[in-house]
Design the sequence.
């Protein structure tokens, strides 16, 4: 039990690290802006490549033409909704003559912020707060604003930067109150995830091999796809593939999952232990904000993936040798480019170093609590077998509970035929035991088909005589009680004579009269008992002498 508990704790710790490291949203590549961002899962987004059958259009009651016209009029290239449309995310781009923000010092940026505030004021937007923020790839002006325009009254938080002659705005609008910390955090997450490809040299491929610099993973890029390679980041790798013909995008991202673990967690596993067999489908559902029905396990040329279908886009996830790989496709299986997306997955080849076998044991952490187990090590043949062992252990416990419940149920059910048998004059214990042999159901059917057992004539006569004696004894007791009443009356009469001689004779006469009545009553009862009553020989019930049938049990007595 301690081993199982230790294993469950370690799995929980590992999954927590995996969940926190996994993408908390969807990677979206905005072709016109040469920009990729991660959109949080609470937002439903649209780009200018939105399709007429996008399910989110129906959800918000809008058409493709409407959302495209709104984007063009506002300069937006991505619009997303949350909180039933009360929160709006916009990413926009405008031409500008302002130098790149990363080339300006703080005083220049403050002047730019002041200029922006003046321009916004002309449109009924008040600037409340301004600060400078530097992300891994760009420098931004962060502005907190409030719009008093009756047609667009809202609270706004906005990040603005200038890159390669383009002014790029990331903003969230709240139509139900001030900007909340969670909304501010969501926008900051988007800003930090932004990757600008402006200045990079996109290449249109013929058909080429791609090798991931971080992991050494290789796959073949189909002909006709434009490749954008983002700036390298520590612990991250990937590329963006864009198809102009069908407006589809493929985003490949690799992440070093192992490096995110603490030393304590690393002491329990090796890098080779961390693969897709280590994680359950339910854990993938939680980590990537999916539903249970949308996640399946698939294999392409022997490579295993978790396949996640979001309806309007597809994500495939693989974990090998401590690395997390994701392939995002912004389309469906019905698209013309989906076959080319599958061809990339089929061509995936992991480095030969990934083929190393998982470690045979799990070392116990030095910081593990003594209550979790005192062994120096716990055998752990493989991640797959450990999960199976956990599932088998839970299954065995469940099976034991079912067996115990069945035994208790039979024991209670077997009482029913026993009680019915007893009521019909048969053995309770005999039919209770029979229920365990032929099942309570069959025993119940058998006893219901049997008639009530009748006592033999001798037993009936004996029972009748005993009952008659019992009834006679009861009547004798009643007669004695009546005699005692008469005696009390006599005593009272004698007492009255001593108190008053004037009424002595009257009382004595009255007492004698009552005594005579009592004697007559006793005589009548004795005669009635002897001549007018009889008893049923089957049930002992008191009957009139001329009764032919017992009024209690219904049997013929004459």
Sequence:
């Amino acid at each position: 039990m301690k081993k199982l508990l230790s294993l469950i704790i370690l799995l929980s710790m590992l999954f927590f690290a995996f969940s926190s490291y996994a993408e908390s949203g969807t990677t979206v590549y905005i072709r016109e802006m040469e920009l990729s961002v991660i959109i949080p899962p609470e937002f439903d987004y649209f780009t200018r490549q939105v399709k007429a059958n996008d399910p989110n259009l129906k959800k918000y009651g809008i058409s493709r033409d409407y959302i495209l016209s709104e984007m063009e009029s506002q300069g937006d290239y991505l619009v997303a909704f949350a909180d039933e449309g009360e929160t709006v995310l916009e990413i926009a781009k405008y031409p500008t003559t302002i130098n790149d923000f990363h080339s300006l010092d703080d005083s220049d940026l403050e002047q730019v912020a002041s200029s922006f505030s003046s321009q916004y004021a002309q449109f009924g937007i008040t600037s409340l707060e301004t600060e400078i923020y530097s992300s891994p790839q760009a420098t931004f002006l962060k502005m907190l604003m409030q719009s008093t325009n009756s047609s667009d009254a809202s609270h706004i938080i906005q990040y603005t930067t200038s890159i390669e002659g383009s002014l790029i705005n990331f903003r969230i609008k709240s139509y139900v109150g001030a900007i909340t910390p969670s909304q501010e955090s969501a926008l900051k997450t988007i800003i930090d995830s932004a990757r600008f490809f402006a200045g990079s040299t996109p290449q249109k491929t013929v058909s080429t091999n791609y090798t991931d610099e971080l992991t050494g993973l290789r796959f073949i890029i189909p002909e006709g796809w434009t490749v954008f390679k983002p700036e390298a980041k520590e612990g991250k790798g990937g590329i963006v593939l864009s198809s102009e013909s069908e407006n589809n995008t493929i985003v490949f991202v690799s992440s070093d999952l192992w490096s995110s673990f603490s030393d304590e967690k690393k002491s329990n596993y090796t890098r080779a232990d961390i693969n897709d067999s280590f994680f359950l489908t339910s854990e993938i559902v939680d980590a990537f904000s999916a539903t249970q029905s949308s996640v399946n396990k698939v294999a392409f040329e022997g490579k295993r993936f978790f396949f996640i279908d979001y309806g309007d886009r597809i994500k495939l996830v693989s974990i090998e040798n401590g690395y997390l790989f994701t392939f995002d496709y912004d389309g469906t299986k019905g698209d013309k480019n989906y076959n080319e997306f599958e061809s990339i997955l089929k061509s995936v080849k992991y480095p030969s170093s990934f083929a190393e076998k998982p470690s045979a044991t799990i070392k116990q952490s030095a910081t593990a609590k003594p209550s979790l187990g005192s062994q120096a090590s716990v055998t752990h043949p493989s991640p797959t077998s450990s999960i199976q062992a956990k599932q088998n252990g839970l299954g065995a416990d469940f099976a034991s509970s079912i067996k115990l419940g069945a035994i208790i149920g039979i024991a209670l059910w077997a009482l029913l035929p026993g009680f019915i048998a007893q009521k019909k004059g048969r053995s309770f214990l005999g039919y209770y035991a029979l229920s365990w042999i032929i099942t309570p159901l069959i025993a119940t059917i058998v006893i219901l088909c049997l008639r009530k057992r009748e006592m033999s004539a001798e037993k009936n006569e004996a029972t009748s005589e005993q009952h008659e004696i019992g009834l006679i004894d009861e009547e004798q007791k009643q007669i004695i009680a009546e005699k005692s009443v008469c005696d009390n009356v006599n005593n009272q009469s004698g007492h009255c004579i001593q108190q008053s001689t004037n009424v002595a004779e009257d009382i004595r006469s009255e007492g004698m009269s009552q005594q005579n009545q009592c004697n007559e009553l006793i005589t009548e009862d004795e005669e009635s008992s002897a001549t007018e009553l009889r008893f049923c020989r089957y049930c002992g019930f008191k009957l009139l002498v001329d009764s032919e049938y017992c009024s209690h049990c219904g049997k013929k007595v004459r």
The chain has a mean pLDDT of 75. The first helix runs from residue 2 to 21.
